[in-house]
Amino acid sequence: LSANNESRGALVVFEGLDRSGKTSKCGRLFSNLEGLGHSVELWRFPDRTTSVGQMISAYLTNKSQLDDHTIHLLFSANRWRRYQLFVCRSMMETKLKAGTTLIVDRYSYSRVAFSTAKALDFEWCKAPEIGLIAPDLVVYLDITPEKAAERGGYGGERYDQLEFQRKVAQHYKLLKDSSWKIVDACQSLDDVEKQVKEIVLQHIIACQKGKILSSLWS
Ligand code: NYM
């Protein structure tokens, strides 16, 4: 994707089960980085503001029924829409190259983990995501499905069920590689925040030094 090694922002992705605390940790990290003077944006998938996002939201809240393949492709389209936003120009790439670090709450891994948990084919699930930018860092907030369920407040959405989350956890295990940073989500909030901040800052520095951008699953 990037031929030269110019300074740029980092693409930092957070993954984990529902109720693993991703959204609050992303928010804290965003404030921390902004406080340190970094150019940073917080993105979240699914992006429920677009028309495709609204179809996803209706599905997740059981207001519509879609077959597993269709919803898989809608989640992927939702990422491509945000990635591309300006015709022929990658919004994500433009931001990163302008030096902005993107903190992304869920990315392609969520979709593959959730769809393969429904027994869809692994390679088929990965295919629509090919060509999106590969993250510089994936932070996995690690919590057992049982502990996550104890946190309460499952949002009442389609996937908020212990049995299904157990399957998702198994499928995340198959997706993880050695580059993922696994953070124990059951530590105190302050400890999680501190650990995440340290890991992310290391990656921001590497990207400022000109780490090359690559494509997902290339
Ligand atoms: N989800 C999220 C997927 O199944 N595939 C995806 O690609 C993404 C981004 O949406 N249960 C699922 C995981 C969640 C649900 O996400 C809503 P959140 O982070 O709770 O808004």
Automatic annotation (TrEMBL):
Keywords: ATP-binding, Kinase, Nucleotide biosynthesis, Nucleotide-binding, Transferase
Gene Ontology molecular function, alphabetical: ATP binding; dTMP kinase activity; nucleoside diphosphate kinase activity
Sequence ranges assigned to domain Thymidylate kinase-like in this UniProt record: 14-196
Pathway in which the depicted protein is active: Pyrimidine metabolism; dTTP biosynthesis
GO biological process terms on file: dTDP biosynthetic process; dTTP biosynthetic process; dUDP biosynthetic process
This protein's GO CC annotations: cytosol; mitochondrion; nucleus
This enzyme's EC code(s): 2.7.4.9
Family, as annotated: Belongs to the thymidylate kinase family.
Annotated protein name in UniProt: Thymidylate kinase
Species name: Gossypium australe
